[in-house]
Design goal:
Strand content: under 5%
Protein name: TLC domain-containing protein
Number of helices: 8
Pfam family, one: TRAM_LAG1_CLN8
Radius of gyration: 23 Å
Order of helices and strands: HHHHHHHH
Oligomer: single chain
InterPro entries: TLC-dom (IPR006634), TLCD5 (IPR042512)
Keywords: Membrane, Transmembrane, Transmembrane helix
Main location: membrane
Distance between the termini: 109 Å
Shape: globular
Number of strands: 0
Helix content: over 70%
Length: 261
């Protein structure tokens, strides 16, 4: 009887390990396929739009990923569910896994591109590293996918504005009303999503008994990194505001002088 029971336990354990290995293998294949897809898209853009340069084409890929990621994660959070502020730590759904695999493939591509061309500083590289590790951990645990999708949504929703700013700057249209509008919208949306919405999300994560401790620690780390970005943006906003104030002040004085003449 003891031998029969031991064989059953070993058989069940083998089935569970085999099922887990099959799922992990499928995830690895999915991430590799997404990574290959992003690399192929970038290569195609470089081939057909080579006159624009490597960074221009890389930012087109970044823009596409941002639009796709925001669209999918918005559907997950607002339609498919569950609501991340109420049900953190729940099991990953197939749609959540697909969204995370899609973004993980992109982050691996962009991390490799940034390291190769040395275009980003330590803060951005740290953000990419934490995003990759966070998604990997969520996929490995099989839970808290809704929080990861919420983080992807909050991180990528400002991406189109950030890329629009770069494209305006490198096409000679940044010092215009449109450039100012993009900057203002980017700063307001970034601070609102990263500080206020992100803070509420972190609070719900910390007070809920469902998410694992390692997930909560990851959430704290991402929120702290968001504040680093906010500090950089505040310095940028202060500098640009000062420059714009002097510019409009000078124009006002010139207008007054012209009227006096």
């Amino acid at each position: 009887t003891f031998g029969f029971g031991l064989r059953n336990i070993c058989k069940q354990l083998f089935v569970q390990i085999s099922g887990w290995s099959a799922k992990m293998s499928l995830l690895v294949v999915g991430v590799a396929a997404c990574l290959a897809g992003w690399v192929a898209l970038y290569s195609l853009l470089c081939h057909t739009n080579g006159s624009r340069g490597c960074e221009w084409n890389c930012r087109l890929v970044t823009l596409l990923h941002g639009i796709m990621a925001v669209s999918v994660t918005a559907y997950i959070g607002y339609v498919d569910g569950p609501w991340p502020f109420t049900y953190p730590g729940t099991k990953n759904t197939p749609l959540q896994i697909s969204a995370m695999v899609l973004s993980l493939g992109y982050f691996l591509f962009d991390m490799g591109w940034c390291v190769y061309f040395q275009t980003e500083g330590l803060v951005m590289l740290a953000h990419h590293t934490m995003s990759i590790l966070g998604i990997l951990l969520t996929l490995w645990l099989g839970e808290s996918g809704i929080e990861s999708c919420a983080v992807i949504f909050g991180s990528e929703i400002t991406n189109p504005l950030l890329q629009a700013r770069w494209f305006l700057k490198h096409s000679g249209h940044y010092d215009t009303f449109l450039g100012d509008l993009v900057d203002v919208l980017f700063v307001l949306l970034f601070v609102f999503m990263r500080v206020f919405v992100g803070g509420a999300m972190l609070y719900c994560e910390l007070v809920s008994p469902r998410p694992k401790l390692v997930i909560k620690c990851g959430g704290v780390a991402m929120y702290v990194l968001s504040w680093v970005f906010v500090a950089d943006i505040a310095r940028f906003a202060g500098r640009k505001g000062s420059v714009r104030y002097r510019y409009w002040r000078r124009r006002a004085l010139q207008t007054q002088d012209n009227k006096a003449e």
